Amino acid sequence: MKKKNSKRLKLLKGEKFMYFIIILLLCIIPLFNVYTSSLVTKTNLDVEKLKNNIEKQKEENESLEMQIDELASLDNIFNIAKEYGLTYDNSSIIQVK
């Protein structure tokens, strides 16, 4: 029976370094992908919160504009003028064009 000569291939220093880098990249790339995905998700949540805040502020602004319109109406002005004893004299109003 013949014995097989088992020769083990020796890797060069450069090859060892290249294999190390490839294995390192195969481990780091998926981790980096998960990390960036989580950052994108967090940013999207922040954007949605800001959109909700903007909508709430728009609704509040519209409500305040309606209150301003109600308070500036002629009926309200006449009622307040009557409370303070003021009168409305149409002849003293001058229109400028």
Could you give a short description of this structure?
The protein has 97 residues and is an all-alpha fold.
What does this protein structure show overall?
The protein has helices spanning 13-71, 74-83. It is mainly α.
Ranges where pLDDT stays below 50 over 5 or more residues in a row are none
Q: Average pLDDT across residues?
A: 87
Shape: rod-shaped
Rg over CA atoms: 40 Å
The major sheet is characterized as: none
β-strand percent reads under 5%
Distance between the termini: 121 Å
> How much helicity do the residues have?
over 70%
Number of helices: 2
Structural class: mainly alpha
Overall strand count: 0
Order of helices and strands: HH
Task: Please describe the topology of this protein.
Blueprint: H1 13-71, H2 74-83
